[in-house]
Amino acid sequence: MTEVMNVLDAWTRLPTGGRGRRRRPAVLILPFLLILILAACSPGSNTSSTSTPPSSTDAGREEAAQEDAAQDAPAAKQAGIVDPDNHGWPRAVRDAFGEIVEIPAKPERVLTLSLGLDEVVMALTGPERFAAISDIARSGYSNIVTQAEQVPATVINDLEYILGLAPDILLLDGMAQPELVAQARDAGLTVFITDLHDTVGDHLANIQLIAYILGEEEAGAVLMEKVQQRVDALAALVEEASAGQQKPRVVHLAPNLYVPGSATTSEEFITRAGGINAVSEAGLVSWQQISLEKLVEMAPEVIVHDEYDADRLRSDILEHPAMADVPAVRDGRIYEIPSRYLTTLSFWNIRGAEELARHLWPEALGSVIFEDFDW
Predict the structure, then answer these.
(1) What is the largest CA-CA distance in the chain?
(2) Chain segment 296-333, per-residue pLDDT in tens
(3) Is 43 exposed, middle or buried (0-12, 13-18, 19+ CB in 10 A)?
(4) Where do the DSSP E strands lie in 148-190?
(5) Nearest in space to 239 (alpha carbons), one of 94, 369, 361, 67
(6) CB atoms within 10 A of CB 184
(7) Going from the N-terminus, what domains does the chain have, and what CATH number goes with each?
(8) pTM of the predicted model as reported, rounded to 2 decimal places
(9) Cis ω on the peptide bond leading into residue 327 (within 30° of 0)?
(10) Is 92 in a helix, a strand, or coil?
(11) Is-contact 231 351, C-beta < 8 A?
């Protein structure tokens, strides 16, 4: 089951002006583009991916180092708040398309069409401010199942129904189709579009921005502090655990031999766990389908995957005779981590880095229990 099928199905068959014309989905975010990839559809990339691979491996590493240095920059410098000193209403924010959106009053009924945004909004407001929530937020792909079950209404595939929910604001991600956004605004909805990225710095920026939009600046500051504390604690643990040791080369593997290179969420959690992304080391950018021979050539010391179609991944790829001498297979360093940690485009993917770190440094961190975020 994919996010496109579950979260965005509400938009795939929406009538335009009641005339029944189909429209394309408004949002395509990485977690469920990945699941589409796993279903053998064409590969997708998130909004922070680049379209041109680096000219050389060294250039790619240099670029990655620059991004790593910038990713923890103060969120205030990245958030699209027009006037940070204005904490009254109305307030203005700049969206991912550069449009200035005025929020007339504190939104009491919020609707998002993105699991990543659901997870951020839930942390800031709890379930009571949701006008409705998607089925995927109540599924195993979600980090907010318990809270999502407290939201009585479900988003369905009907624009008139969504209008009937009377949301004060509709939050979309940066892949929103401009035509759909215009139609939603013409219908009287306040629509705000924010990019969903891969790095901690961008997560902090989005928390700050969404908190401002919702009039929850204090809650946003608390959440940002919690996230930063988790990031700093993990960095300290990894630094101590890996001191004097060689960093393991890691491949995040999906069925049909799709792998993520640089400019992906996987790059972020592998690096923060103290590993090297063997796919970006090979010069690949974004999600790519590779050959079995290429995977063997990469020779990763660790392979990580999620639960989606894991049996097929093992039987078709990991147990293939050609993989027998790959270090990760030979040494039994193949680990399954829940997709809700690995592929979400929210601060929750820090949990993916924590879980991977336990596997990369088992002697020092193998017995460490990392708790989920709580409120």
Answers:
(1) 66
(2) 999 999 999 999 999 999 999 999 999 999 999 999 99
(3) middle
(4) 169-173
(5) 361
(6) 21
(7) 3-31+75-226 (3.40.50.1980), 53-69+243-365 (3.40.50.1980)
(8) 0.80
(9) no
(10) strand
(11) no
